[in-house]
Every structure is written in C-alpha cells, then in structure tokens.
Write a structure and sequence with these properties.
By secondary structure, the protein is of the alpha+beta class. 23% of the residues lie in helices and 25% in strands. The chain contains 14 helices and 26 strands. It is globular.
Length: 609
C-alpha cells in the first residue's frame, strides 16, 4: 500500500461549466477537515491535505481499520463535525483539531465522522487510474457506510437542480462537479473537478451605516451599510456590506435621519460613530450562507428594494416599528402541575403537558413584568424557559417578591399559573435536561429536541445514497424531506412555530424512518384542516417531533414486531384544542391490544401571525 497519495484539488467553477450530463456527477461539498485515510486491518493513519498526521485527533475513525480489506485501502474524504441541526460546521471541528489527543468528554461533546468521497487504493490495487465512475462503484461495493462513516449520495448532472435545492435547505455552502470518465490526478488542481459555491439571495433591513474616513472630514460618505433581520425578540444584526459612495442607493440611505436604535447582537468595534436608522429601507443582498452566530457570509449589495416588493416578514417589522416604538410582547400561560396532584385524565406518568403558546393567564394569577416599564436589563431574556423575576407587588410579603438567587428554583403551588413571555414558553428541561440519574419527573425531550444526532444524519444519507441506484424517485423525496427536517431543527431557539410547520418536520422524519423500518413501522398524522384545528396554531418548536422520535427510538425500535405512531389533533379536548402523540407497540397476536402510550399532550396556542 502506498505511503502517500497527495489529494487531488478542485478548481472553482459554476454549474454551467459542466456540459455533457453523461460525463459529470454532482455531489454535496462537505465543510470540514480534508484527510486521506490509509487503512489496514486493525490500523488507520490519517494525513491532512498537507501530509500532516492527524490520526490522534480523531480516534473514532479507527473503525476504518475494522472494515479494511486484507490488502488495505486508501480513501479520500473529509472529517466532519455536525451542528445541532445536523449540518457540517467548522466551529465545533476546530475544537477537535486544536488537540492531538482529545479526552472522552470532548469526543462525546463534539463527535466526528468521516465523509468518504473517493477510493484511491483497494486490496493491493491502485485505483487512481480508473475513471471516477468505476472508482465510485468499487467504493460503494466496500459497504463502509455506518454511524461514523458516510458515503454520500452522488447524482447525475440532470439532478443538479434537486441537489442545489437540497443543499440550500440543508445549509451547505457548495457543490462538487466531478468528471465521471477521467482518472484521479494526485496533487493536481484540475478543472475535471469543480467546486461550485452556492449563492443565496435575500432581503434585509438597512439598520444603519458607518461613515468612511475620519470624523469631521467634510461631507459624509458611507463606509459600510449595517444590516438586520427581524426575530422574535426584535431586530438582530446580521452583518455589514459595502456600497459605492456615489451610488444612488448611498444617497438614499444618507437622506434618512439617524433616529433609530441599534439592533440586538451588534459586535464591539463595528465602526466609529455608527448611524442607526429606524426600520424603513430594505435592501437585496447576495451571500454564501450564515455563520454560527447568524451573520451573513460574504454579503454583497444588490440594491434597495421598492416598498411594494418587500418580503412579508420585513414589511411586518417595518409596520410594527412605525405603529409603536416599544410594543409590549404577548404573554402566555404556563401551567406547571405540582407533585402529588395526580395526572390529567388519560395521561400516563410519563406524559408531558406543555404550555399553550400565546395563551393569556387566567385572572388572579401572578403578573409578569411589563416589558414597556422594565429597564433594559430586566427585559433581556435569560436562557430558554427561564422567566424574568417579577417585581414585588405592594401587598406581597418581602420574601415572595425577592428574586431567587442564581440557580435556585421555587416550586410552584399545585394549581399555580405563571405568566411568562412567549420567547420563554419552552421549559429549560426541554433543551438542556438534568442527567437521567438525577432528572426529576417532567419533560424528557432532552437532546432529541435539540439536535439531529450524527448517527441519524449518517444513517439517513447512507440510505438515500443506496436508493439513488435502486429507487431514484424515492431518493429524491427523502433527500428533500431530510433537508426540511434539518431546517426545522435549526429553529429550536424560536419561541413558537406554526402547527403545520411542526407537522411537516414530523412527516419528513417518519418518512425517513419508514424507509429504514419497512413494515415494522406504521404511522398516522391527523391533518389540521380535516381535524378542525387551526394549522397556524402556535406550538413550541420540535415539541411534537421530539415526542415522536422518542416513541420510535424507545417503544418501537427495540421490539422486533415494531409498532405504530399516531399524532392526533383533538379540537374538543377539555382544556381547548390539543395535539397528542400516541405510540402503539405491536405485541403477540394472541395478547389483547393495550391502550396506547400517550407521550405528549400539547395545548395549541393562538395562531402565529
């Protein structure tokens, strides 16, 4: 087996550079650490693109040695770490590459996998000289796919539009075009392999600008335009972009009075004396995606947008700003059953009752702080699920009105209702659970509600890759569904989403799992319109999805007979419209059918507007 095969390098290109569809493949570009893996039975060596050994940084990939043929193999690929939405992300990976010997805690916190893209040597034979079509076929025949190894799908050029749409929904920043009829060219950058960046277009609010040059230099010119986008807590800074000083758009921006306030998340050192504008101007920008902090990557100015063409969310933000500079955010009622009070009718001991997003607390309940009267520090929301402490009422004993010390939690009375802001409606336990050994009774969503785990992502994409050859229409359907599921997981931090959006994510997940389970899994999702429930009802993001995933993982997958999942929508529930997640584990035919396990009862909130 060779000691070193320098990796082939892609050139920059565009989709239009690929002509004959029979000679090109189109694949996802994976952000990560490019590595060539040299694997023999029981031994693996990983070299970076500069031939530096990184074997110790990624001990999980020793699994390649268990799958190597007797004569060894050399693989070209990328070490990838996934973010909470199941997308490759360089940020978490930097924590792994910063150490040559990660401890168990770091390996658990930032798991990595290997995305295999080419086969350079196999069982005593060099394969570099083979055309990519043959190398790809031999790679798939090795059956390397597993929880830590991904052999991603490869598509024909005629599927380029599908791959672009999926990559954009999934949050990838590029594609690869590869010539199917040519050999691997070690160490060379060649136009037989092209990297195509994805360019996204969107509208943004012009939040302000910073002057060019030193202050007091005469007529002011724009150095950069500052951009923002609306989110539930207000406008958030998303980046800056250059604009021509003599451009007509620049003159329009300069004419707007600097009477606004800065958006959320403005970093230090944004510029000298920034001028903040009230929401009103909207610009079109082109960018390469979003960073982990939510900033636009490499934005470029494409001009101001006429008011009649504003996107709905931006038009709504502008209208709201003009109606009132400081509107009070809506509140919701969160009922927290106390211990020892029993369970709601039909609810088992593991049933979770979540708050109705957008509901108003009953008269006589403890009031929340009014945002319009609170100082800025008091209005700043804490971690998800932590309501800001209330100001003492005049008739409240001193100890009751005093905020609890950090980390302390007061147990509510059995029938107490607490008013909190919409953005705080999801209890913290839904996203950062107490370890199982000490977890109290209550919400159990845990990591299922927060992220798409690596093994799920890899299993899904490996399944899709196999279907590309055997059932292309099914592969297309699952690919788009997976991208939608990832996009839904990216919304975990939002205060609420529409019921129909939540059910779309559930439907995509179950579609993927039915492919994996086959006849062992049957599913049924009520349609909101058919059930008489408003599809725009507000629900906490991923709440239904987390319950469904738990039911599949814990109640159906361990049993050979499988089972069924039913998401039921009940417009006539005692406390108002609600969604229920029921699981029916299959049992022996001679055993009487058991009542379904009710894993979640979710009151449906006011419509999301």
């Amino acid at each position: 087996m060779p000691d070193l095969i320098p990796p082939m390098l892609p050139a920059a290109g565009e989709l239009t550079d690929a002509g004959d569809p029979d000679r090109w493949a189109v694949e996802f570009a994976w952000e990560g650490h490019r590595c060539v893996a040299y694997a023999r039975p029981g031994r693996v060596r990983l070299l970076s693109s500069t031939a530096r050994s990184v074997t110790g940084s990624f001990p999980e990939l020793a699994v390649l040695g268990d799958q190597a043929p007797p004569g060894g193999m050399v693989l070209d690929g990328t070490v990838v770490a996934l973010d909470e939405a199941g997308r490759p992300s360089r940020g978490p990976l930097l924590r792994r590459t910063a150490t040559v010997s990660p401890d168990a805690a770091l390996r658990s916190e930032v798991p990595v996998g290997y995305v295999v893209t080419d086969l350079l040597f196999c069982d005593g034979r060099r394969t570099c000289e083979l055309p990519y079509r043959r190398r790809r076929a031999e790679l798939e025949a090795l059956d390397l796919a597993g929880p830590k190894i991904l052999v991603p799908p490869s598509f024909g050029l005629d599927e380029a539009d599908l791959v672009v749409r999926t990559a954009e929904r999934y949050g990838l920043d590029g594609l690869h075009l590869k010539r199917l009829d040519l050999p691997y060219q070690p160490g060379r950058r060649t136009r037989n392999w092209l990297r195509v960046p994805l360019r996204r277009h969107r509208q943004v609010l012009v939040a302000g600008w910073v002057p060019a040059g030193a202050p007091g230099g005469g007529r002011e010119r724009i150095g950069a335009v500052l951009l923002a986008l609306p989110e539930p807590g207000g406008l958030r800074y998303v980046g800056r972009v250059g604009i021509g000083a003599a451009d007509v758009d620049a003159r329009t921006v300069l004419r707007v009075p600097a009477t606004g306030t800065p958006p959320l998340g403005v970093p230090d050192g944004i510029g000298v004396d920034p001028r903040w504008l009230a929401p009103g101007l909207v610009a079109a920008v082109e960018h390469r995606g979003r960073t982990a902090a939510g900033r636009l990557t490499l934005p470029s100015w494409r001009g101001l947008v006429a008011p009649a063409e504003h996107d709905d969310d931006l038009a709504t933000a502008i209208d709201a700003a003009r109606r009132a500079a400081s509107a009070v955010r809506p509140t919701v009622a969160l009922r927290r059953p106390g211990r020892g009070t029993g369970h709601a009718p039909g609810h088992g001991p593991e049933t979770v009752v979540l708050p109705r997003a957008g509901a108003v607390a009953a008269p006589g309940t403890r009031p929340a702080s009014e945002d319009g009267d609170a100082p800025p520090d008091a209005r700043t929301p804490g971690p998800a699920g932590t309501a800001a402490p209330d100001r003492p009422a005049r008739d409240t004993p001193p100890d009751e009105g005093r905020p609890a010390r950090p980390g302390a939690h007061r147990a509510p009375a059995p029938d107490e209702t607490v008013r909190i802001r919409v953005r705080d409606a999801v209890p913290r336990a839904l996203v950062d659970p107490v370890p199982p050994a000490t977890a109290p009774d209550g919400p159990w969503h845990g990591p299922l509600s927060r992220r798409l785990e690596q093994h799920f992502v890899y299993n899904t994409l490996n399944t899709i890759a196999s279907l590309v050859r055997t059932d292309p229409p099914r592969a297309r359907e699952l690919l788009l569904g997976f991208a939608d599921l990832s996009r839904a997981a990216d919304r975990a931090g939002e205060p609420s989403i529409r019921l129909d959006e939540e059910l779309a994510a559930v439907r995509a997940y179950l579609q993927i799992e039915r492919t994996r389970f086959g006849a062992r899994l049957t599913t049924e999702l009520d349609d909101p319109s058919g059930a008489g429930v408003d599809p725009s009802s507000a629900v906490p993001p991923l709440s239904v999805l987390a319950a469904v995933r738990r039911g599949v993982a814990e109640e159906i997958e361990p049993h050979s007979a499988g089972g069924a999942v039913h998401v039921r929508l009940d417009p006539d529930a005692p406390d108002g419209p609600a969604a229920r997640v029921e699981v029916h584990p299959a049992g022996p035919a001679e055993r009487p059918a058991r009542a379904p396990l009710v894993l979640l009862v979710l009151p449906l909130g006011v419509p999301v507007v």
